Amino acid sequence: QVQLVESGGGLVQAGGSLTLSCAASGFTFSDDAMSWFRQAPGKQRDVVATITSTGGGTTYVDSVKGRFTIARDNAKNTIFLQMNSLRLEDTAVYYCRRTRKPADPWGQGTQVTVSS
Predict the structure, then answer these.
(1) How far apart (Å, rounded) are the C-alpha atoms in residues 26 and 1?
(2) What sign does the CA torsion over 52, 58, 79, 6 have?
């Protein structure tokens, strides 16, 4: 079955950087676009960034453009989210999931906390 395991979160000061990882299993990883989502306290879970199956195309929500970079390693069934210039409003639990498979189970997520 599909499994997604996020890691790499932590506590960082505003302006700092973190790199998140998501290890995937249970499906043919190189067949699917992947996305990072985040959910802040009291808010809905929203997509942050998406990468095509080959890694040749990426999209970002406006609030993270120029600061976040999504990447993938199809040999290792892993996607990444490099986050730079972190802001207080980036504080959230971050999740990964196949972009077009809303029925996939969510992983446990990884907490990112940005402090002032």
Answers:
(1) 5
(2) negative
Q: In whole angstroms, what separates CA 98 from the centre of its chain?
A: 11
Tokens, residue 55: 């890694």
Instruction: Work out whether strand 110-115 and strand 10-13 pair parallel, antiparallel, or are unpaired.
Output: parallel
Q: What is the pLDDT of residue 1?
A: 93
Q: Compute mean pLDDT per 10 residues along the chain, 116 residues long, and list them.
A: 97 98 97 98 96 97 98 98 98 97 95 97
Integer CA distances (angstroms), 97 to 28, 48, 57, 66, in order: 13, 11, 17, 22
pLDDT at 81: 98
Amino acid at 68: F
CB-CB contact of 3 with 95 (8 Å) = no
CA-wise closest residue to 96 among 74, 79, 116:
79
CA distances from 46 to 15, 33, 50, 74 (A): 22, 16, 12, 24
